[in-house]
Design brief:
44% of the residues lie in helices and 13% in strands. The chain is an alpha/beta fold. Strand 1 and strand 2 form a beta hairpin. The two termini are 12 Å apart. The mean pLDDT is 96.
């Protein structure tokens, strides 16, 4: 099985794509690219058994309803709610709130943060994948699944903060060391130097790990209470088992 991880950004310059080949109890990093444009992403996803995208796959349903109501001039604040209380469901999706409850981490708000620019790009990518015959299910059942590297790292007991940007290269190197210790079956090959100097590349690798967990049925899926929202808002698949379970 080949899984792909996409650390998506609004522009190609900060976007990375990683391909992991899972075979004979090993995971080999076949390729990792930074500066990935849309065509590189679509081709990688099309050739993969499963792809994990680090980006919201949709907006909160209540935010979409709010914008529609605002356009028509009919915004109403729910009775008994003021301030942040009524804006919470506009800013965070159901899956974001589930992730926070489980991990203590708060995903960026797709309706109130700059991650929205990335999600606009993602929406176009999902549409292109669908046009090319790839099944797209925002709940994670199709060709792609939404992932969150920081949460995956935390659940696997690995460093999940403080390794991003050039000023934190030492911390990034420590994360790579810890990952190799926790997953002795991982072969980064000639791509290890890039993973040690680019947090985008490393996040893409972690996204490919999370895609593997989803493909094996070892990640969270929306239950009956959350499935309807997940179908439009997206669903972050969190690893549900230890890291070593990703290989036979």
């Amino acid at each position: 099985m080949v899984t792909v991880g996409v650390d998506l950004a609004a522009e190609a310059a900060r976007t990375a794509v990683a391909r992991l080949d899972w075979h004979d109890g090993r995971a080999r990093l076949v390729d990792v690219r930074t500066g990935a444009d849309d065509e590189v992403i679509v081709e990688a996803v099309t050739e993969a058994g499963k792809a994990g995208i680090d980006c919201p796959l949709g907006w909160p349903d209540r935010f979409v309803d709010f914008v529609t109501a605002h356009r028509a001039g009919h915004v109403e604040v729910p009775d008994g709610l003021t301030g942040r209380a009524w804006r919470r469901d506009l800013a965070w999706r159901v899956t974001d709130q589930v992730v926070h409850a489980r991990t203590g981490l708060t995903p960026l708000s797709v309706s109130a943060d700059r991650i929205a620019h990335t999600t606009m790009r993602c929406a176009a990518l999902l549409a292109e994948l669908a046009r090319r015959g790839q099944p797209v299910d925002r709940r994670g059942g199709g060709a792609v699944v939404e992932v969150y590297p920081a949460a995956a790292l935390k659940l696997w007991g690995l460093p999940h903060r403080g390794y991003k940007r050039t000023a934190n290269l030492a911390a990034l190197g420590e994360l790579v060391d810890r990952l190799k210790d926790a997953a002795p079956w991982l072969d980064l090959g000639d791509h290890e130097p890039l993973c040690r100097t680019s947090d985008d590349a490393t996040d893409a690798v972690i996204s490919a790990f999370a895609a593997r967990a989803s493909a094996l049925g070892l990640a969270t899926v929306p239950d009956g209470d959350h499935e309807r929202a997940a179908a439009t808002e997206g669903w972050i698949a969190l690893p549900a088992t230890p890291l070593h379970t990703l290989v036979p």
